[in-house]
Amino acid sequence: MTDAIARRQQAGLDLLRAARILPIVTADDAEQAVAVARALQAGGLGTIELTLRTPAALAAIAAIKRALPSVVVGAGTVLDAAQLGAAEAAGADFIVTPGVSRTMLDVLAGCALPVVPGAATPSELLDLRERGFRLAKLFPASAVGGIALLKALQGPLPDLMFCPTGGIGENDAADYLALGNVACVGGSWMVPRDWLQAGDWDAIRACAERARALADGVRR
Q1: Among candidates 67, 66, 60, which has minimal Cα distance to 86?
Q2: Choice among 65, 88, 137, 209 that is catalytic
Q3: 161-181 pLDDT, tens digit each
Q4: Fewer CB within 10 A of the terminal residue: the chain, N end or C end?
């Protein structure tokens, strides 16, 4: 592991451990993104992942960083070097991928930001580990084994930490957070599409408050 990768991985681990719950937001426009981020922050969740799944995503990242500079914004669903560069230019604080190719591993290794590369299998995790990564997004978590898989990975890969994402909700997030190799849990249950489209910021704030309390109540 190079010193640079180690430092960035530690920075990523520190921010995820501080967050504990990572809301995953897909915004239709920059104004909506700022309103969502403000509601989440008011509810105690000041770190978010904004996915690059809409044409407005990069503008939304930039708008959040202008309006709410204390919010930590990760760019999610980053698939290639071009998207990563655009996310950096927009002001993203960290990068999240759903998976990695060999080419993308090279890109992530040279990224100046903390990165959370995605993986779904032990073989993929070994590839990440060989390149110096010790932090990964388990995705799609519930579909590939969820809590049982994370427990199984603790034995052979005790130095890896995870942010499981995919199929996790308010009902089981605490069970994931109680695991020793889970730094943070990602999910979209705090920001369902119908609430975003209706502009129901109070509902988002209230759900964020419950998520914050849930995370704070977990003892490992």
Answers
A1: 60
A2: 137
A3: 999 999 999 999 999 999 999
A4: C
Beta-carbon contacts of 63 under 8 Å, excluding residues fewer than 6 positions away, are: 30, 31, 33, 34
The verdict on whether omega for the bond into residue 69 sits within 30 degrees of 0, i.e. cis, is no
Catalytic residue among 31, 49, 65, 170: 49
pTM of the model: 0.96
CA distance 43 to 205: 5
201 contacts: CB under 8 Å, gap ≥ 6: 35, 36, 38, 39
CATH number of the domain that 48 lies in? 3.20.20.70
137 tagged catalytic: yes
Model confidence pLDDT, tens digit, residues 61-84 = 999 999 999 999 999 999 999 999
Please count the structural domains in the chain. Answer: 1
- Span 125-164, pLDDT tens digits: 999 999 999 999 999 999 999 999 999 999 999 999 999 9
